[in-house]
Amino acid sequence: MRWSRYYLYTTREVPADAEVVSHRLMLRAGMIKKLAAGIYTTLPFGWRSFRKLMDIVRRELDGAGCVELSMPAVQPAELWHESKRWQRYGKELLRIEDRHGRDFCFGPTHEEVITDTVRRDVRSYRQLPITLYQIQTKFRDEIRPRFGLMRGREFLMKDAYSFHPDYDSLGETYEELRAAYGRIFEACKLDYTVVEADTGAIGGTDSHEFMVVADTGESEVVRCPNCGYGANVEKAETRPLAAPEGDGERDLEAVDTPGQKTVDEVATFLEVSPMRVVKTLLYESDKGLHAVAIRGDREVNQIKLGNFLDAEFLALAGEDKVRQATGAPVGFAGPVGLPKEIPLLVDPSARDLEGFVCGANRDEAHYVGARWERDAEPAEVIDLLLVGDGDACPRCEGVLELYRGIETGHIFKLGTKYSEDMSCVYSDDSGQDRPMVMGCYGLGIGRTIAAAIEQNHDDDGIIWPLPLAPFEVLLSPLNAGRDEAVREAADSLYAELQERGVEVLYDDRDERPGVKFNDADLVGIPVRLVIGSRSLKEGNLELSLRRDGEKHTVARTDAVGRVMELLAAG
Ligand code: ATP
Ligand code: MG
């Protein structure tokens, strides 16, 4: 491709809302253009990289026996009523009405459509299992679209759905797809990790996320370097925390704690460790008001709490609600004397404490020397702990490490949720109808490209991993307008490389060398060939790799061979 005939316009300007480096670099390198919040045009230079990724995805999924199709973006509401998601999906679902007043949505995902398709075609166990996939545009009206393609509203996703006669068959396909996902991210040369994920409201049985490791990632995951256990913190577990020493049998005593609201304030005021304080928080949800007791130095995992309560929404109760329910302002609630109508959930970290400090459910007072059973009913003990860096691995003797990651893939055992709601059944070998068992498998195309840039860049621009690079080689003659020999050498090299099937971007623009060098660094093509008057007179060119920037002088006659070697090496 000749740059002068191509559609690639780099820019120095980036809008203030481009907070992360991949967003800035994709804009600056002319890969994407914003049309509206969370809605982007993928420009030709970006699209080439998308195509590379989509080719890898198709190769691996086809290899794993999946079958590609293409489903509509606009979906009738009836299907979403059947699955009961028309309401439940909430505001992320973009609802639209046609000229006849019929309701539709722009698909945020395709469980409904694929289930409808399969229930009309598949009747017998002999047709199962089957895995179908597409690469297609989704729309989710994200509350906070940001980071460019990382969290867009309209975005490209590969979504696959598998249908099975039973859970064993689902388990086999799930493992095959999990392995295929691993091969995809490896083929992209990305540093990734697979973690156990929360199955949330859909209530499936098993779920894993593929995280590309990056400091700017929106997800937090823990990993055990010893046994490989990995989990999203939304779901992560730890071994029971070691409880601090008790303070012997002592009586319950109320003490004045004027103005001491936070755990740290109370602990400092009473000269105890925050580990000896039971923190009691009140949460409001569609399931009512609940109190949660946890050790003072730890945080509640609201996802675990929401799952336990099966709540549609959940938030800390406001000031007024707390006072009305407990009789005390925020900061003074506690398990001792908590009104009976407020169900109390106790995390093991709090249950294991003996002789603890807690709020007295009155203004400006706490208890010291409190004990479970004697002073407070430990109604329900459940794990609600937010696991963090340095906690003990639940599977081995190791210590968990906390990372940030970008969730680029998500696989999920759905079970029979959709097939039951939408009567997607097959007849088994005795002729009896059974709901199909399903799995689903998502992978964000744009988000993965953004993640690749988060992981591969420097101050000057993108450093493409070869498998995702829009072009493999950048051919850059300097001052070709003034030196016919340089132009001729560049033209002939371009032709030779193209003949060999190399993807070359030929920077034939009439630009100063400085501009060409800066653009080359910005757009990040892995192999660079520079042709200058002086070295060409000696029969040489300059070859360099974007990743290390080291310049090597090569003979004009060896250049193509050297490039082929570098590309073969990957
Ligand atoms: P998140 O928790 O980040 O919102 P999700 O759990 O909603 O993701 P899935 O429904 O599992 O995502 O979608 C599958 C894949 O689609 C994700 O792993 C991600 O790569 C991609 N994806 C999801 N939402 C977006 C988005 N708003 N912008 C770009 N890609 C997305
Ligand atoms: Mg989401």
Q: Share of helix among residues?
A: 25-40%
**Percent range for β-strand residues:** 25-35%
User: Which structural class do you get from the secondary structure elements?
Assistant: alpha+beta
List low-confidence stretches.
none
What about the largest sheet?
A: 9 strands, mixed
Question: How many beta-strand segments?
Answer: 31
Bound molecules: adenosine-5'-triphosphate, magnesium ion
Q: How many helices in DSSP terms?
A: 16
The whole-number mean of residue pLDDT values reads 95
Our Rg estimate from Cα atoms comes to: 30 Å
Distance between the termini: 21 Å
Shape descriptor reads globular
Description:
The protein is α+β, with helices and mostly antiparallel strands and 570 residues long. α1 crosses α12 and α2 (44-63) packs across α6 (167-187). Helix content is 28%, strand content 28%. Strands 3, 7, 8, 9, 10, 11, 12, 21 and 24 form a nine-stranded mixed β-sheet that branches. It has a five-stranded mixed β-sheet with strand order 16-14-15-17-20. It has a five-stranded mixed β-sheet with strand order 28-27-29-30-31. The mean pLDDT is 95. Adenosine-5'-triphosphate (ATP) binds at residues 109, 140, 142, 151-152, 155, 157, 407-410, 442-444, 446-447.
How would you summarize this macromolecular structure in one to three sentences?
The chain is an alpha+beta fold.
